[in-house]
Amino acid sequence: MAKILSQDEIDALLTTVASGDVTMADEDSNDVDELLRPVVAYDFKHPNRVSKDQIRTMESLHDNFAGHFGSSLSALMRAIAEVELVSVDQITFSEFIMSLVSPSCTYTFTADPLEGACVMDISPNLTFSFVERLFGGSGKEMESERELTGIERTVMAKIAKALYIDLEKAWEHIIPIKIKQQSFESNPQFVQIVPPGETVVVVSFQLKLFKTSGLLSICYPYVSLEGIINKLSAQNWIDSTKKKLGATDRIINNKNLMKVGTELTAILGDADLSVKEFLGVRVGDIIPLDRLIHQPIDLSLGGELKFRGSPGLSGKKEACQIIEVLDDSQGEK
Fold it and tell me: Which of 136, 137, 170, 198 is at a distance of 20 to 30 A from 46, taking alpha carbons?
């Protein structure tokens, strides 16, 4: 049964409101709001399964890819093509599919050893511009809402192949992958590589050719990245890049050193002659050396004793077969 306030209680309540004591309650609520303000709402439909550090590594990886693919695309188009990384986002697969237009130019591919399949999509205006350019046109922007013909799909396959090669090179710093195309789809709704609610990482690029521009998107499901997610760290990216550069520098240095010419001298032997004997040397004279005919001769490289060998012929040319490699201590003697 509800309690009925007495007249004294009503008067006390009215007096409290008139005196302004209730403002303390408002101030307390403001303090609570200040405490709750730093709290960030968590959306269970869009969980952040990839950390910011790993996202930054993906950005560095695909920024490197953008530079290589821009060069490859310029060579194919015989014109300057710009490829610029726009964003790296993690969204659900259904949101990615809904962002694509239909008809589209969508490829699915595997990237062994990554699990599952990935998706690559090129906007239609770019597709027709590429086809028009490769057939000898100026690459002008064409707006056409139709599916690609068989010939146009074959032409676009060349661009997709160049993209896969450059993408493999970009991933070498993290893990070597081998890309194999699975299918081509004109309707993105038919692309079902993971459940609609699965988290995916979408990498978007802005492509420019003459006056035509459009988006290129690459979609990696989280299940594909899960096995190598620990390698997607900034420190691992820096270390792998240094190792790659070190190996490349070593190959370049070895290649450059192979081209360096040096003088190889065969020393048949020595002889001690007085000045009088030396001045009296004539054509046909015989000078005895300090080395027997069956003993190996010395070979000096750049003025330093490095080998011992046996003289002879190789075909019609004089040659020397190396029979001993001297170390630094033996060479000094």
Answer: 170
Q: Report whether pLDDT(91) > 50.
A: yes
Q: What is the mean pLDDT of residues 7-33?
A: 61
H or E element in which residue 235 lies: helix 234-258
CA angle 197–203–207, rounded 5-degree value: 135
CB within 8 Å of 291: residues ≥ 6 apart = 268, 269, 270, 297
The CB-side HSE value for 111 (13 A sphere, CA atoms) comes to 30
pLDDT in tens, 92-108: 999 999 989 888 899 99
Task: Write out the DSSP string of 81-119.
Answer: EEEEEEEEEEEEHHHHHHTS-SS-EEEEEEEETS-SEEE
Output the pTM of the full model.
0.58
> Which has the higher per-residue pLDDT, 35 or 320?
320
CA–CA separation, 207 and 203 (whole Å): 13
**Where do the CATH 3.40.1550.10 domains begin and end in the chain?**
52-247
- Where does 52-247 sit in CATH, by number? 3.40.1550.10
Give the architecture (CATH level 2) of 264-332. Roll (2.30)
Q: How far is CA 300 from CA 98, 160, 308, 311, 322, in A?
A: 74, 55, 9, 14, 12
